[in-house]
Amino acid sequence: MKNEPPYPIASVDHALHLATLLQQEGPLRVSDAAGRLGVSPSTAHRLLAMLVYRDFAEQLPDRRYQAGDVLRTVAASSVPVALLREAALPHLRRLVAEVEESVNFIVLVGTEARIIATAECSQVLRVGSRAGRSLPAHLTSGGKVLLAALPSTELAARYADHEEVDPPRLRRELALVRKRGFAINDQRTETGLTAVAVAVREGDDPVGAVAIAMPSARFKRDLLPGWATTLHRTASAIQRSLG
Question: What is the CATH topology of the domain spanning 10-71?
Answer without folding.
Answer: Arc Repressor Mutant, subunit A (1.10.10)
